[in-house]
From TrEMBL, chain A:
<dbReference type="InterPro" id="IPR051680">
    <property type="entry name" value="ATP-dep_Glu-Cys_Ligase-2"/>
</dbReference>
<dbReference type="Pfam" id="PF14403">
    <property type="entry name" value="CP_ATPgrasp_2"/>
</dbReference>
<feature type="domain" description="Circularly permuted ATP-grasp type 2">
    <location>
        <begin position="72"/>
        <end position="450"/>
    </location>
</feature>
<dbReference type="InterPro" id="IPR016450">
    <property type="entry name" value="UCP005522"/>
</dbReference>
<dbReference type="InterPro" id="IPR025841">
    <property type="entry name" value="CP_ATPgrasp_2"/>
</dbReference>
<protein>
    <submittedName>
        <fullName>Putative circularly permuted ATP-grasp superfamily protein</fullName>
    </submittedName>
</protein>
TrEMBL record, chain B:
<dbReference type="Pfam" id="PF04168">
    <property type="entry name" value="Alpha-E"/>
</dbReference>
<feature type="domain" description="DUF403">
    <location>
        <begin position="1"/>
        <end position="308"/>
    </location>
</feature>
<dbReference type="InterPro" id="IPR051680">
    <property type="entry name" value="ATP-dep_Glu-Cys_Ligase-2"/>
</dbReference>
<dbReference type="InterPro" id="IPR007296">
    <property type="entry name" value="DUF403"/>
</dbReference>
<protein>
    <submittedName>
        <fullName>Putative alpha-E superfamily protein</fullName>
    </submittedName>
</protein>
Length: 474, 312
């Protein structure tokens, strides 16, 4: 089985690939004690600075360190250019799709996507019909998960268009690598990523409501108990904008203000890290204590920009995912540059029958699930787990999709415990794509690594770690 | 600045200050309990700490007798007691965490490390390591946090709210310590029964023992102790110094609705500045301190509604 995995660092003969050669030489020449000391140093530094994330389902307020691995994931410039072009194309098409379904719905009228797939989707927000966000942008920040399969080809696993997180780790991992191993940065020409907060702020300012000259941007967080709270504080601080909670904002005559020690101050752009459901108790969930009453109305009146827009979830939903190559053809007249993973939609009887017959080899996901919760990885599951999942699928097939188990590529990774040392672990890549007056991204993105032997789930909530991601310049 | 941010900074500062004052008070009481004393006196001294924080009934829920160990256990490491050192440090850290983007990296690290180290302790490990060592640690961590705060923070509104919280808490703590100890030590108002050790301990708990010697160069008398802790401008923990600090900080953050609060803070500061000890004593120290604590409470409420409240 392991022969089928693509190894990022070494070729089939076990020789380092050209873009890993300098690193491999350096690693071979480094004393094991020094590496061990540096790893411990990284751990202490991360904890002292409080780069942690809260874990759902554990003791309230429990914080865990996301493990950081010191072996970088290296991407050659040529390969990154290809990915970048594919990402630009994909995000353009997704934004065009969102604009279309909330306006003339041409793609539905053309019959390319079944109407009920969109309109009955829980993430479709009728409130957004006819609303014109500045620049026609809906997904200002997209986190597109990319994996490399056994054939060495890149596949998009999912498009995160709601509140993608992880970019703070991309930046902190880089800072840590530079602190631990400065010499590596003179050995390689590594494209910098630390300017991401500047790019983000610039992006948010360009999408301010029409006529606003010097917009006030804020970051809206659910609060200190959110799993990504560290990132919210980090980004707000790096951008120099206020980190606000719902209770800090209020709406008066369709204008959003924040409460300050000097009275009320108008807010023009809200980078919100709060799900649609919680944004406005008057419009969505009535029990939300996290939102701002009247926010939707202010938004519809065009007095404030929300990034991302409301209702983007319909475009990254797993039931819509299979249609993305179709969107690219329809809106851009182009062929998709990045591959989609073949997907069975279990609401279709034929697909359902096939999947039920092949459960042990497939990955089954909840259509609305995220974060690695509520999924079945067939090859890694026991018979009992598979049978349990089978019952859940049969009870509500429309809630699931299935995909072949991808042979996620490996990257050498330091592991602790009984077999301490370097071992291959599966990885993915989440580049962060910013859409405003243009589409920009920091080179690379966040590489997540599944630390458990054989595990294909890289989510931090499921024991995943991170690696610094290097895009080498020519 | 966001009202909520100011609120977190203000409480972060109050909780840090409260933990330190508590450590001082407990340390001194503990030191004094090493001097031979009657069971009665022990109960009175430790009971006074509970009275100081109005915690007698909360204490009685978990403990049947007022002993040194019980009170220490309750006030140091009992996380159900919101006034314990561990609760204050947790709360300081929670408030800091909520606004860590406003703090300098060193400040956040200092407060976070304090909490991480506190979390590895429990009362038994503290007993084993020596309670005085623990109290020293609390004071040291507080001094460190204060040091990086004033050494690294931009001198803007955020710092003013940190000042405001710290000074308000300190004023309240000094007044409470003086009020309760004065009564424990002079139950009959009898000047002759002055206990050098007890008054010395009170001064030490406020880091004022050496200061007293330097200022008065004379034996310790209750009246002078009261004067030092209330009316000396140059004594950093005195009521006068604290109220002057509150008035200064309020001037810096004043907004459209805070005129009355600024006026009251200025009035309180001026009253202490021009007060005479004889007048206070004639009026009665206890009623005077009670009025003072009411004024501090009132200022706290007004600061809350003028600057910090997030409800419109």
């Amino acid at each position: 089985m392991s022969a089928a995995f693509f190894n990022e660092m070494a070729d089939a003969a076990g020789r380092p690939r050209p873009h890993y050669q300098a690193y491999a030489d350096w690693l071979a020449a480094s004393a094991a004690e020094r590496i061990a000391r540096k790893r411990a140093e990284a751990d202490i530094a991360f904890r002292r600075v409080g780069i942690t994330f809260a874990v759902y389902g554990e003791e309230a307020g429990a914080e865990r360190l996301i493990p950081f691995d010191i072996i970088p994931r290296i991407i050659p410039a040529q390969e990154w250019r290809g990915l970048q072009a594919g990402l630009r194309q994909r995000v353009r098409a997704l934004n065009a799709f969102l604009h279309d379904i909330y306006h003339s719905q041409e793609i539905l009228r053309a019959g390319l996507i079944p109407r009920e797939q969109v309109e009955n989707n829980a993430q479709f927000r009728p409130e957004m019909i006819g609303v014109d966000p500045p620049g026609g942008i809906y997904a200002h920040i997209a986190g597109v998960d990319i994996v490399r399969a056994g054939d060495g080809e890149a596949y998009v696993l999912e498009d995160n268009l709601r509140v993608p997180s992880g970019v703070s780790y991309m930046i902190e991992d880089r800072r840590m690598m530079m602190r631990l191993f400065p010499e590596l940065f003179s050995l390689h020409k590594i494209a910098p990523v630390q300017h991401y907060p500047d790019m983000l702020l610039e992006n948010l300012r360009t999408v301010a409501p029409r006529g606003v000259v010097d917009p006030t941007v804020v970051l809206l967080t659910p609060g200190a108990y959110n799993s990504a709270y560290f990132e919210h504080t980090f980004l707000a601080q790096q951008m120099g904008v206020e980190l606000v909670e719902g209770r800090d904002l209020f709406v008066l005559d369709d204008v959003v203000y924040m409460r300050t020690t000097q009275g009320k101050q108008r807010v023009d752009v809200i980078y919100r890290r709060l799900d649609d459901d919680f944004l406005d108790p008057l419009a969505f969930r009535k029990d939300s204590m996290l939102g701002v009453p009247g926010l939707l109305s202010a938004y519809r009146a065009g007095n404030v920009t929300l990034a991302n827009a409301i209702g983007t979830g319909v475009a990254d939903d797993k039931s819509i995912y299979p249609y993305v190559p179709e969107m690219i053809r329809f809106y851009l007249g182009e062929k998709a540059l990045l591959n989609n993973v073949p997907t069975w939609m279990l609401r279709k009887p034929d697909d359902l029958a096939y999947v039920l017959a092949h459960l042990p080899e497939l990955v089954v996901k909840e259509v609305h699930g995220a974060g690695g919760y509520g999924m079945l990885v067939g090859p890694a599951s026991t018979r009992a787990e598979i049978e349990d999942f089978r019952a859940r699928i049969i009870a509500a097939p429309e809630k699931y999709i299935a995909q072949p188990t991808l042979a996620l590529s490996n990257c050498p990774t330091f592991i602790d415990g009984e077999f301490a040392g370097i071992a291959p672990r599966h990885i993915d890549l989440r580049p962060f794509v910013l859409s405003g007056s243009s589409i920009e991204m920091a080179p690379g993105g966040l590489t997540r690594v599944a630390l458990r032997d054989g595990s294909l789930v890289v989510n931090s909530s499921q024991g995943g770690g991170t690696k610094d991601t290097w895009v080498l310049e020519d | 600045m966001l009202s909520r941010t100011a609120d977190h900074l203000y409480w972060m500062s109050r909780c840090t200050e409260r933990a330190e004052n508590l450590a001082r008070l407990l340390d001194v009481t503990y030191q004094m309990s090493l001097v031979p004393q009657t069971v009665d006196a022990e109960e009175r001294n430790w009971g006074a700490i509970l009275a100081l924080n109005s915690l007698e009934s909360a204490f009685a829920v978990s403990f049947d007798r007022v002993t040194a160990e019980n009170v220490l256990r309750f006030m140091v490491a009992d996380s159900h007691n919101p006034s314990s050192i561990i609760s204050c440090l947790r709360s300081a850290r929670e408030n800091a965490r909520a606004v860590r983007g406003t703090l300098t990296a060193e400040m956040w690290e200092s407060i976070n490390v304090t909490w991480l180290e506190m979390r590895t302790q429990n009362f038994d490990s503290i007993l084993a390591g020596g309670v005085s060592e623990f109290f020293d640690w609390v004071k040291r961590r507080s001094a460190m946090t204060r040091g990086v705060t004033f050494g690294t923070m931009l001198q803007d509104e955020a710092l003013s709210f940190i000042h405001l919280g710290g000074k308000l808490e300190r004023a309240d703590n000094t007044a409470r310590i003086l009020d309760v100890k004065y009564h424990v030590l002079r139950p009959n108002g009898d000047e002759e029964t002055t206990d050098f050790y007890q008054w010395g301990a009170l001064l030490r708990s406020l880091s004022a023992f050496e200061v007293y010697r330097k200022v008065y160069r004379d034996v310790i008398t209750p009246a002078r102790v009261a004067e030092l802790l209330m009316l000396r401008e140059d004594m950093p923990r005195s009521l006068r110094a604290c109220t002057a600090g509150i008035a200064r900080a309020l001037d810096l953050v004043a907004n459209a609705q805070s005129a009355e609060t600024v006026r009251r803070a200025g009035l309180l500061s001026a009253q202490l500045r021009y007060a005479r000890l004889d007048d206070i004593m004639a009026h009665g120290l206890h009623p005077y301190l009670t009025d003072f604590m009411d004024s501090i409470f009132d200022l706290g409420e007004r600061i809350n509604s003028d600057f910090l409240a997030t409800a419109s």
